[in-house]
Records
---
Amino acid sequence: MKKTTTVLTYGTYDLLHWGHINLLKRAKDLGDELIVALSTDEFNQLKHKEAYHSYENRKFILESIQYVDKVIPENKWEQKVEDVIKNDVDIFVMGDDWKGEFDFLKEYCEVVYLDRTNGVSTTMIKKDLLIG
Ligand code: C2G
């Protein structure tokens, strides 16, 4: 029985935009199942990020996306090895703004950094809306 290929990625996914969707689509295209570890509101504080939408609402939005099969909470930096093992992950994916940061996972699974989508970001959206 062929094992399904499980892909795992992490992020805040606030004010969802086409750059996020572009990442999720390419991540899902690498396998059969895509798990997103979504930064909790508390973890965002550790990342010095403040999401506009709550964790529950960001989770609801992600779960509505055709490419996403499962959403789990990201509570701390140190949970990735455990997440990879517990979820039998084959491929870990992040945008290449994180290139190299998670190479320690190569001991447990394939690590893929996908090109970040230029021209859009949550920060940019917030700034543009401020200017009005
Ligand atoms: N991304 C992208 N293109 C953009 C914006 C984001 O490809 N224009 C990707 C990022 O590289 C990341 C994912 O979308 O892989 C989610 O981005 P963020 O929500 O900003 O995630 P981040 O705050 O980088 O959290 O433990 C890892 C962290 O939780 C990553």
---
Amino acid sequence: MVQDMVGQKRPMVQTEQLIKRFGQNMVLNGVDFRVERGQTVVVIGPSGSGKTTLLRCLNHLEKIDGGRIYIDGELIGYREHNGRLIEDSDANIARQRAQIGFVFQRFNLFAHMTALENIIEAPIHVLRQPKDEVVARARKLLAKVGLSEKEHAYPHKLSGGQQQRVAIARALAMQPKLMLFDEATSALDPELVGEVLKVMRDLAEEGMTMVVVTHEMGFARDVADHVVFMEKAQIAEQGPPEQIFGDCLNDRTREFLGKVL
Ligand code: ADP
């Protein structure tokens, strides 16, 4: 019981003084980032401010140069040894990644597999779940993203918006505890953006924990529980959308929003 209460209170994501450099370029300069369980946090900010890198660090697609990342209380990508961090085993990193869904700007579907085959691939081969169970779940997910009739379609027969919805279903098929979206609608024709945002909004409303990097300020305003504004490798300002889109106090946030709204 006590354990459960502690588990409920623990943030889903917590970074402590996260540092990431590419060569001389300081890309994340001591970032403390937190996402509560069930929350949708939207990360906004100018190009090059470190938003994508922050997401990629969260599931260890990038190695970090300092600080700590915890997902659901578990140190990600590393283990501590005499106060120092040593990169974790490939098997452990793969296990951690399997709990975190990642949706990329480019949909990255397997071109030689149908929509359904794309969705069932990882649960069968990574999680080794029984095929009939996985297929049944995949069909439910296809229905959820509005693509039941596209079960047998190959990616090249699908629009960009449909492909991205399959990519979201594929990530959800792993039953992740956290979903990360990296500019998931930026590569889409404008008329296809809405159908993907709707799927993301539904997920948020169902209580999925989500971190969303996006330029869609309407989505941030309507769906986010918390908005993080990044600038120059740091979190420059954060708060509820009413604060960030209302009378944000930080001049730089105001200037950025003045350009994009
Ligand atoms: P954002 O998502 O806010 O546009 P990014 O996280 O993509 O910002 O990039 C932050 C900085 O890191 C930029 O200066 C970018 O050029 C640099 N960067 C990102 N990825 C790499 C990489 N793989 N190698 C070298 N530099 C990179």
---
Amino acid sequence: QANAQWGGRFAGGPAAIMQDINASISFDKALWRQDIAGSLAHAAMLAKTGIITPTDETRIREGLKDIAAEIEAGTFDFSTALEDIHMNIEARLSERIGEAGKRLHTARSRNDQVATDFRLWVRDAIDGLDAQVTALIETLCARAMEHAATPMPGFTHLQTAQPVTFGHHLMAYVEMLGRDRGRLSDARRRLNESPLGSAALAGTSFPIDREMTARALGFDRPTANSLDSVSDRDFALEYLSALSIMAMHLSRLAEEIVIWCSAPFSFIRLSDAFTTGSSIMPQKRNPDAAELIRAKGGRITGALVGLLTVMKGLPLAYAKDMQEDKEPVFAATDAAALSLAAMDGMVRDLSVNAQQMRACAGSGFSTATDLADWLVQVLKLPFRTAHHVTGRLVGKAEARGVDLSQLTLQEMQAEEPGITADIFDVLTVEASLASRTSLGGTAPDNVRAQAGRWQKALAAE
Ligand code: ARG
């Protein structure tokens, strides 16, 4: 039997397999709130412009509210034969209120309807994720304050480079997440235009008021081109791009957590609440949440690449390919929300093995740069010469199996006669850290100031 909404020119109904490939209700029912909000705004506008009567508008409004209550209560019967959320709701409306329900779709198409619903959905998702990123930033700042002076080895190439503080390291992620918030809010600003009233692709002959529906739905303005309005999905792509970059940041922190809590590193310990055991090896404490955050980053990027690939090469305007825009966006949103929540919990709970981190921060000749800098600042050697002298001293210490600070003054002076006992003051981890007072450097006072600035800025939002 032909489709109830568009079957007028059809004698027969779709094959079962046609219905299966065509229907989107299984996932786009997630748009029901946005769909009803869009229809309420559209109906109010139709009445105000005289396209439908006030009586019809009232009946539509009440009918839609009842439908919202049915969906909320779980009594709404979603039908695959009705394809998608738009036709499910519209058909139910006509079933409930008759003629008036059949007038709702005047001057509208599912093409502008779905574009509107989806923008509203992504806008809500951005607001929800922004609150979660902000919460994670706050947690990182609090832990950074606590560990502003806790030494840890800083790495390049994952080789010990120079001492930094654990707080400084955490604040690096705060900066990344701050930019992630910026990207999300940029995407939100650009997506906040209303496609509603673009109809199928060409606009409409009815005297509609697109400014009115745009305002009612919290959009800044209506979109300017009806073809663009129904065929553009770059708001979703931009959102997925921002999520992919954020997920990449979370994945890097997750990877570091995996490394830090491994036995050879033992820099941190995750709480029982954020660790799992092994079914065979009784000693294991596995960082599964961190590993899954790392993996979800891959899937979020997959969602971006998937949708980009769906969209490339589509001729204007709407094509059914675009129905496949929702699942990647929904899945990426869930993955991002879960990742942010799990990361917040892990960071909040983790305990720091300060002794172990301090020991590693001082090993591997981590203060060799400080020695070279001293030769430049005190003896006025050119940096390149100082680098060579220090390199020879490192070689000497390594051959003897000792640290730089364990070389004797005589051994040092054999390489550079100008060296005095003062040199030993700059070879400690604490001296190295305290000296890094350049803007953005790791000196504990800098770290405290940076975390404090973030906390103040967030409190003022
Ligand atoms: N379910 C469709 C989607 O998600 C709604 C738009 C359908 N439009 C159409 N002309 N068939 O894209």
---
Amino acid sequence: PEAITVAELANRMAEKAADLVKSMFKMGMMVTVNQTIDQDTAELLVEEFGHNIQRVSESDIDIDHTTDVDPEETLKPRPPVVTIMGHVDHGKTSLLDALRGTDVVRGEAGGITQHMGAYQIKTKGGDFVTFLDTPGHAAFTQMRMRGANVTDIVVLVVAADDGIMPQTVEAINHTKAAGVPMIVAINKCDKPEANPQKVRERLLEHSIVVEEMSGDVQDVEVSAKTGKGLDELIEKILLQAELMELKANPDRMAEATVIEAKLDKGKGPLATVLVNRGTLKVGDILVVGTESGRVRAMLDDKGRQLKQAPPAMPVEVLGIGGVPMAGDLLTVVESEQRAREVSAYRQEQATAKRTAMAPASLDTMFSALA
Ligand code: GDP
Ligand code: MG
């Protein structure tokens, strides 16, 4: 027989735990909210409160869509998502800032920028590119460990005056392990002591053969300081993206990945998310990690209010009940009832993981329908 806590059962019935305790007291049972009760007692309570008993199967609750693949005909091209990696001081932050500066939309909007962990630019040619503004492989590895593979392309920054350094090698290894294609940006080419050819030669030692050396890894000489090579870098990113035929179904309930999240004193929990598929809309009911909520408002990286966010668009979401974690999956669901079920399920999974206990068998767990 499976057991469930009074609090958990109350949560699933959307009733107050105290009311359940009271009701059980009337039935002659003395329990506290954190106490577990057996299946028979739980069923009794569900009936007592006038709900229907519904057993939830694992496939029902698998909203993480591991098995749910969008049919080919629903897929439309989407922008690439790019992460910049490289050794400290080789110019990752400078390059991200310089690339942000090439955004034609930002030019029109007057250049207000809010930092939110990711941004999207519209290129001169009208294409979109999304950059994760969390440089460094720590973020990249952490996201991957949490099962979030959001990066399509890695731009490896190597300073032409410093060459291949330990973190350059680490970045190469992480990128290879992730199976993500790489573009090498040889930075600081404005410096008199810059030696881009040496960088290309040294990359051979790590099995990176760039185009200039007749290989198939694209490389480009840039300067984040002068802006040299930035257009070419964007062109190469778009070329790589084209080869990958990146697509997603925009016409479905959204799924997104949390890039970063924080608690804002005025606005409450804020999460920057990147839409993986579907279109995220204001008013959507969602579950994110173990939190749930409703999209109250969405802002882009230019501080503009959005009503909708398509695949590969990063947005800041207001209206989540708590602060989720980077790498958490956000899923839009059809009802608040469903959101409660799913967040309860995920909380249980998280607790089971924490206490290193096997999670309760799901097909014998209950949920209640109002
Ligand atoms: P990060 O640690 O990789 O994020 O590197 P930063 O972007 O913070 O850059 C480190 C230093 O290199 C800063 O002093 C930058 O101003 C400088 N820097 C970055 N890119 C360039 C460049 O293209 N040319 C020159 N001359 N300096 C650069
Ligand atoms: Mg930096």
